[in-house]
Amino acid sequence: MLHEALRVAEGNWRYRAMVGVGGIGSGTFFALDGNATLGREESRAGHFLDRRDYCKLHIISHYVQTLLGPAFSTIPIGQVGDDAQGRRLLEEMTTSGLDMRYVRVVPGVPTLYSFCFLYPDGTGGNMTTDDSASSRVDTAQVESAESEFAAHAGRGVALAVPEVPLEAREAILKLGTRHGFFRVASFTTGELSRASTRSLAGYADLLALNREEAAAFGGTPSAAISPMTAIEAAVRLAVANHPRLMLTITAGAGGSWLWDGGDLHHLPALRVTVESTAGAGDAHVSGLVAGLAAGLNPAAAHQLAVLTAAYSVTSPHTISPGLDRSALRALAQSAGMALAPEVRQLLEGE
User: Fold this and answer.
1) Under 8 Å CB-to-CB from 182, ≥6 apart: which residues?
2) Predicted pLDDT at 275
3) Average pLDDT of the residues in 259-268
4) 188-231 tens-digit pLDDT
5) What is d(CA 302, CA 309) in angstroms, rounded to the nearest whole number?
6) CA 336 to CA 346: how far, in whole Å?
7) Secondary structure of the chain: what % helix, strand, coil (to 5)?
8) At what angle do helices 341-348 and 298-312 cross, to 10 degrees?
9) Domain contains 116
10) Residue 143, in any domain of the structure
11) Same domain, 176 and 286
12) Predicted pLDDT of residue 225
């Protein structure tokens, strides 16, 4: 499929490359019969869904590259197994235009895989392999790509996302710091419950969170609080400990928030026909990164993030194959979204 990239004027580029580390894998969706919580020894009927699942590094890398086109370089760092699943992912990522020189194939180790189960009411969970090729990504592999940081010093994005060890993510954030990159990080809720992980936010310029992650980052119990309470707690912690840190926080139908270091901005979620919300948070981060790379200010890039996330949920797959400039333009028009002039220019080329 031929994708239409954003129309970025040559003089507007802020960043020209993204180097990222995170999990690379896929998964299966299984729809359970009945909303009762699955018991420890229960056998439950259900059926597989025709949905393709991907991991965070793949999703974000794909969307950023698709939106920014061949003038931008996206360089993932990761590992897959020497199996059919790994080979398929490598082929898909190469077709998307990603620079795959730092993705290794590891014999005898399986590619990261997740089994996602869904109840009829839309809730669910997943089980993810912990002995995959992604679990073996280490600091040395990340540091082997330092020449890419040197080549794009001051003009790149460093991305650190889960499903690889924390040490690998810390390494890429520190490389980004050394070479003047814009540093983007995300962590799981469990990771953010530890003070040692929260301190890593000091190596990031942008921390991507959902509501539960925001609660963990801010040190509040997510089950007992409103989204706004969690968001305000996260902002207070950022202001107190990491005053230059930006936060992007997604809350599903509640919309999303952007703390730009001085002001908290909220945008509502667009009303679209939802096929699956899986991967929407990653799509949101992708739109934000792409917008910043294309020269948008944070508030305008937030608009592009909302559009990207909204389009992603109209697909049953965690990577929506049709997402590009023309698709986002059509969505903005149909949703009646009032776009900032600079966002409209990226989508329309006016």
Assistant:
1) 14, 15, 156, 157, 158, 176, 205, 206, 292
2) 86
3) 94
4) 989 998 888 888 888 999 999 998 899 999 888 655 567 788 88
5) 11
6) 17
7) 45, 20, 35
8) 50
9) yes
10) yes
11) no
12) 65
Number of domains in the chain: 2
Residue 62: its pLDDT value, please? 97
User: Which residue segment(s) compose the domain that 281 sits in?
Assistant: 270-350
Q: Is 223 exposed, middle or buried (0-12, 13-18, 19+ CB in 10 A)?
A: exposed
Residue 85: Cβ-neighbour burial (10 angstroms; 0-12, 13-18, 19+) = middle
pTM higher than 0.90: yes
* H or E, element range at 225: none
172 and 29 in one domain? Answer: yes
160, 185, 210 - which closes a domain: 185
The domain spanning residue 57 has which CATH number? 3.40.1190.20
Tokens of 81: 């197994």
Which tokens go with 206?
């942008």
Type of residue numbered 227: P
For 122-149, give one letter per residue: b (16+ CB within 10 A) or e: eebeeebbeebbbbbbebebbeebeebb
Contact yes or no for 236/273 (Cβ under 8 A):
no
Kindly state whether residues 181 and 318 are assigned to the same domain.
no
* 138 or 231, greater pLDDT: 138
Q: Is position 330 within any domain? A: yes
pLDDT of residue 10: 92
> Are 181 and 278 part of one and the same domain?
no
What pLDDT shows up at residue 283? 96
Do residues 277 and 179 share a domain? Answer: no
Where does a domain end: 185, 209, 226? Answer: 185
Of 261, 143, 161, the residue nearest 205 (C-alpha): 261
Q: What secondary structure does DSSP assign to 6-30, as a single string? A: P---GGG-S--EEEEE---EEEEEE
CA-CA distance, 97 to 66, in Å (whole number)?
8
Return the structure tokens found at 126: 């997943």
